[in-house]
TrEMBL record:
It comes from Amphritea pacifica. This is Tetratricopeptide repeat protein. InterPro entries: TPR-like_helical_dom_sf.
Amino acid sequence: MDLHSFEEADLYFEAPLAPEVMALLNQAADAYSRGQAEPYLIKARFMAPQNLLVLVALYRFYYYQHRYTEALEVAGTALEVSGEMFGFDLGWRRMTLEHLSYGMVESFGMVRFYLLALKGSGYLCLRLGELEEGIERLEKVVALDSPDRLGARSLLEVAYNQKGIYSLEQRMSA
């Protein structure tokens, strides 16, 4: 499975979005430099709580504002929504290669999005000082993406170094 391939993949930003919600996202973009984007993004989320374009916009806003706790909450919602879009609703800890394979048949783009959201949430956990939680999330991504197409392994190695573990192999043998 090549997670870099986009042929015939459903992409989150191609999902239909009501014009009034898109207008809110545009207003948020215009208001960002003035520090007034958040109300537009919150209203857009209220109007389209399951739309990944809205969730990504809100996630990015919180991330770039260094509001990692809020970004992590939005990432969790994005995981739930994208998982449901390819038929997986058991929570990321229970994701297996079998689930992933089935999901690839349903929606390759949503599986890729899901794994990227899990990687992002792992990174946020690390930034919040929640090393074990971040490591657990990144280990899951690495286990599901063994060729490391999404680049989670390097983040995992950094987290391991912070914990005094120097390699994935060392962690697995402990």
